Amino acid sequence: MAYPSAAYPDLKGRGILVTGGGSGIGASLVEGFARQGARVAFIDIAEAPSLALVESLTGKTDHAPLFVRADLSDVSATQAAVLKVAEALGTLSVVVNNAGWDDRREIEDITEDYWDKSQAINLKQMFFTAQAAIPFIRAAGGGSIVNFSSISYLLNMGSLPSYTTAKAGIVGLTKSLAGKLGPGNIRVNAVLPGMIVTERQKRLWLTDDGIAAMIDRQCLKRSLDSTDLVGPCLFLASDSSSAITAQTLIVDGGAL
Q: What is the pLDDT of residue 205?
């Protein structure tokens, strides 16, 4: 995996929060921001991979990332975690809402509890993370919120009804927040990844045939990995996108 070579000097020293940053796409985002010289914190519930990520980056970037453990489906825990991040970093101007749960379940097997859990992890926490962070972003003079959605809701995927509902909702949330926060110089955009081949995806869901079928559908004839999301996210977080808000950026190799 190759990280983007582009440099964004305005990100150096800025306070960045990434949710779900302990593994997969989130871990690549944490490393990508850290490589820019940013002060990066991330929230995750999985302790072992998160601590391993911090150890792997300590001494290799200007600032070692800060790991804060929290269950993002718990609103009070989310609020406390964001406060801890802001106090520890001393400033907060970028929030990347990356955390999610792409579990598969057939329609007839979905219970009310399962639906509520999926919405809490995939949609509800994004709002309350942003809500808790907004006062700090305002105090920093403005900034950027990047919400991770997915192209899955555009593909009529039948085995993820709760997940795809949440991912569609993230686009609505993004546009609503952008409209409200724009006058305060806070931009809000969404990134919609396509099939990103991570170790977790390969372990749980992806097959060689499935990967090949998606590559065949894509204009770019290669599999996408987590570092393919770093460049777009850095751009949307930086001043290079200072006039861009309320937008959705699809990163899928041309599958749609």
A: 67
